[in-house]
Amino acid sequence: MTETIRLLLCILIIPNVVLGMAAGLILLERRLLAVWQERLGPNRVGPFGLLQPLADAIKLLTKEDWIPPFADRPVFVIAPAIVMATGILTCAILPIAPGVGIVDDLNIGLLFFLAMSSLGAYSVLLAGWSSNNKYSLIGGLRSAAQMLSYEVFMGLSLMGVVILTGTFSLREIVEAQRDGWFFIPQFLGMVIFMLAGLAETHRMPFDLPEAEAELVAGFHTEYSSMKFGVFFIGEYAGVVVVSALMTTLFFGGWLGPWLPPIVWFMLKTLTFICLFILMRATLPRPRYDQLMALGWKVMLPLSLLNVVVTGAIKLATTGDGG
Amino acid sequence: MRVKITVDGKSYEVEQGDNLLRACLSNGLDLPYFCWHPILGSVGSCRQCAVKSYQDDDDTEGKIVMACMESSNEGCRISIDDPEAKRFRAQIIEWLMINHPHDCAVCDEGGECHLQDMTVMTGHDSRRYRFTKSTHRNQDLGPFINHEMNRCITCYRCVRYYRDYAGGKDLDAFGVHDRMYFGRQEDGTLESPFSGNLVEVCPTGVFTDKTFKQHYTRKWDLQSTPSVCVHCSLGCNTILGERYGGLRRVLNRYNADVNGYLICDRGRFGYGFVNSDQRISEAGVRIADGCTLESIDSDVAVRRFTSLIKNKESLIGIGSPRASLEANFALRQLVGKENFYSGASAQEFELVATVVDAMRNGSTQTPSLRQIESADAVLLLGEDPTASAPLLSLALRQSTRQQSILEAAKAGIPMWQDAAVRGLAQDSHGPLFIATPAATALDDIASETVRAAPDDVARLGLAVAHELDPKAPRVVKLGARLKLAKRIAAALLAAEQPLVVAGTASGSKAVIQAAAAVATALGVARAKAAAPWLFLTLPECNSMGLALLNAKPLAEIKQQPKGRGGSVIVLENNLYRRAKAEQVDALLDGKTLVVLDHVQHPTVDRARLVLPAATFAETSGTLVNNEGRAQEFHTAVMPTGAIRPSHGWLLSGLTACRPDEKHALSLEDLRAACAAEFPELASTWLSDESPTLRYAKEKVPRASFRASGRTAMHANVSVHEPTPPEDPDSALAFSMEGFRDPDAQLIPSYWAPGWNSVQALSKFQFEVGGPMRGGKPGVRLIQPCKDAPPSYPDEIPAAFAAREGEWLLLPLSRVFGGEELSSMDPAIQVRTSQAQLLLHEDDGLSLGLSEGDIVEIQSEVGSFSLPVAMRKNVCRGVAMLPLDTPGVGFLQLPLYASIRRVSG
Amino acid sequence: MGDEDSKATAMISILHSLWRVLRHTFDRRVTVQYPEERRVMAPRTRGRIVLTLDPDGGERCVGCYLCAAACPVDCIALQATEDETGRRSAEWFRINFSRCIFCGYCEEACPTYAIQLTPDIELGEYHRPNLVYEKEHLLISGPGKYPGYNYYHVAGLSIGGKDKGEAAAERPPVDVRTLLP
Predict the structure, then answer these.
(1) Which residues have CB under 8 Å from C16's CB, separation 6+?
(2) What is the pTM of this model?
């Protein structure tokens, strides 16, 4: 009975917290960007501007929900729903703390995440396609190419961790880090995963699908009102999920002294979110061909190298020649 | 002959002997100039068009010459871009600008100023002169022209135009060196009826349009529309400027075949009636005669109009010689051709018919107005064209120079060497014989003048015809005038291109027939030489168009058996100007009168239904001028409120009252229907000027590139900018967007990069002063019958004999005040002199009169009083009565009347 | 190796950049908390447009239409008129501030210093027609930024109170009839 209640609570709370964080990120991002640009950022709505996300939500909800007459209507509507759905579904496998998590211990948790993030590509692609607009189409195509490319070594970059632990279960991976966080043995894997995560969530500096300087707003040019808002939230949900996975896979998840595990998890996740924002505040957008070259010519060989070296060391240390 | 010249290393083909300036401009090169003008020729006084000229290919030094004073010859090599020539020109402009005031902001010429353009073109951008400027007092030059002498650069164009070209006497150059002054001897109105052209001839802001000043707008803000003048029968081309829904000004529009570079003051300043508060702006209905007019909604007006025209049999439509061809034809469609009557008076109808007959069935050629300038012997019969068709008089003035120009050519002096040609001619003028009842403005250059009553004028004409062709009837008892006739005949016969001019303003059919007879006889006598020219003026702008529509004369109306009941539709016409009041009243008695017009007049005052019609500035249409040239005018101002084009009212009435028949719905349909019914008119609208004309799928914009105020001019009404009005009737758009092309058929205004003034016109011509590259000169509808056997009038009028105690009243046309529409313009009204009865001095003395006495003129049709003027050069026994004299009413002239002194 | 070098440098440069940006966390904020705090606007700030008077109290605007022509959004419309003494002015003058982009071209174009942009930038309205300013709203009772200038003192036109030859650097009117050389 208590188990059921716990599970229900988790199901209710975790996705909402992630979505809430995503909304809160709008404020956090604007405030942090302001901090790094020596400004104040939004501080007018509510104390310290805390109600800004609410104001934004009201604004988005009350705007005209416009579907262009030239758009492919059903696809146009479904596209933002996909990104939202994949974002929320990924929450299911997040091992927040012992006993806190929706699917307690999915033995293919890591694969599930990879699957969900790949599905997210459809959202952008379909949005770009259905908008029937040149900018959107180019944005959609770019994102498809970008996500396909980065998906490859995102998976590969995680294989180092999998080799070390011998499992796809996120909880087991966390438990395996009691002796030392994986960012030390898997430093290369961590860097590659972080860059791939940036590209997957198409955050600056890898936001080429919506490069406003050249594509107006890329795949969501034709979107307005809450459909646009859903893309917005979906992107931030992605940021939260990627940060949470960074925490889980390389930084020991909930593990840490003195503080309760859930606080450790949240703190670590928040740190990575802030890092993402710092990167946005700092780095310029690469050219599209540079992005692809980086992916295929640098990242892919490096991640393969990571897998080979990790595998070799693992074989050597365990001595299990099989 | 075409020769090749080299300008800055590039080769150009030019006319041999042409001056280099004109040659350069004709080839699209930018070369600054001031004193030169296409119609005035070269005098080389401003030194602005300096270029470097080289002797041969080996010459590297070259020398500075004035391009306007050098002939172009084969192999001639010059440079415009030569640094020394450029520096020379910059220096000249700097000198010219030394005393030029800091006035551009408050100067009406600003933005279309030749001086501004040339200053920019030479690159003179800052004043080095730090001393004081000379100033001048201005003169009041009357209601048309504003004078601001400080701005003068002493180019002499004004006096060369006003005195040498237009024959004016009261504008001159005064003073010496830096005291040079161009003005009148004392303040006063410029007398010449062509003074308005000073506005365009002056390269800077010394002479500007005073009527424009009252609602001043920069050229770049005006929406310009090509139009045709409606104030006489010549059909001069004009450009109308619109701003904020009002007609702001009228400019000359170049037509190589009609008016060239000039228009008269009546055409330029007579536009006030369009903006007048006397305009009919609302539809109105009158319950019964004498009641006030109640204004009604335009939909209600159409319904009421429809109900009045239901019964086609009892309808009478009266057209108008001042309404467009389309409006007249729409009325004809509405009432049926058997019920369509001409709106001209009985006499006018007959005279116009005589003219049309002479043009259509005679073998003589009708020249274009511009061709008249090259006639070298002229016989003018019966009227003063300065008053009835002003620009004709200007053309005739040029024709008297023709012999001296030919003489100069023999001496090797090209026509453009203005000072030399005029110096050679001195005061001699080519043959111009004038036979009229009263003095004309051309008397000063006439070889011989005769003052005679119309019948005697006709007799003189017929005598000349008899001298030329013995088959023409012989006029007996001519006395001393027989010798004159022989002299005239000899002069006409000796000429290269003789011309006979007459018109309807004489009020005499015999005079017109006599003129036609002279021309016919001339054709017979000259046999194989070029066909002689016959130019006949008409009373109004579309008299010819109305005649071509075969309207029945007004006089036939009363013969209709139906008599009472039914409706009379009067189109843009005041019947009380066309017939005696009693006749009009009898005609309208028992009928419901519907009037479509734009201005108030007595016919409107008794109409049961008044429909507000658009003026020529507010609609598109076609006018046929006196030479049978059909020309289109276009909407310049969008009509406001209930005002609609006449043809629009008529068509909506027609569609509503006979819905089952197929009707024209647009101007385009109407033209097609008209062309189908009158094959003679068909060629009128075959041109590219049609509403469907597009350049690169776009219309021609009326507004300039720099049109301003679009988002503010209506902001006081609504902050949402209205869409510009649509103009379905022309290929012009009320917009600054569209296709601008110097080769286009429609040129709304003259502008070219670096050329903001009207001088930009040269960029639109094949060669300066020649035909437009695109602009259409109109379509000549009437061709003479080349093989027609010479025919002469059977009757010779009896010689005029002065009666004892009675005077023959004759019509006297006036430039200002003698035309219906322009008379409503406030500036024209200031220029209109008080109507006076003109008598010969001796006749006046015999009546015991002195100048200015009020006399009562009594005839069988009533009496009226006028002040009297007495002159020597008036035919004895006649009294000249100004047309359209207020308080006189309609009179069928000529008429015998007695004159009695009332007071002094 | 040079390529590898540059890649390594780029990576270091990126990290360096991240650090530099992060350091801004502790810098002083530049934001001015408008409307509680207000900056002192420079006198040449391009804000609300006014029409000024010359030092003698006459309207400077002579209705030359140059501001309207210079306006890239065509938000200025006016009608020139002339009083009985020949002095020119605007009969009406309208600026649609809902279209104005405060580029200052009108001020640049004005030959009489009549039209000037002021440091007043607070033009917010809930109702667009309130942003349409007529001449009475635009006129201020002073010469604005250019205190001494009076166009008619340098122009050649004679107006009430200033005859021909009385402007700066002008000689008295010429006597055409003199016989002196």
Answers:
(1) none
(2) 0.84
